[in-house]
Design a protein that fits this description.
mainly alpha
Amino acid sequence: MKSEDTSAALNDYSKAIQLDPQLAEAYLGRANISRDKNKNDIALTQYNKAIELDTGAANTYYNRGILFIKEKKFERVIGDFSKVLELRGDSAMSYYNIGMAEFFLNRKEAACRDLAIAAGMGLPEAIEARKQFCNQ
């Protein structure tokens, strides 16, 4: 997204929040833009507000999990992607992200288990990671 586009989008999300402060999707939109601009503290605040307003939005946990990956907060990665699985059911990318976080936390057995699930769902990244880290 171009700088002008993101500025306009941020402005639109802010206007939406002024009109309806309970609109979780607007906080999510602002959070995603902030994350993409590496304004991680602002993004985290916005994700947390979106989750406070809608605890059942798997997409918000997913996107906050991506932020935690960027910040190398692997326990939090596991927490958010586990919540995605709880809310949404099977998500190959969630299993993959949990598996990689487990790997970075030196929990190889757990990592390989989650990578195997993601690989079994056909996710190419998981198949490659299993070959590289799990000798499979």
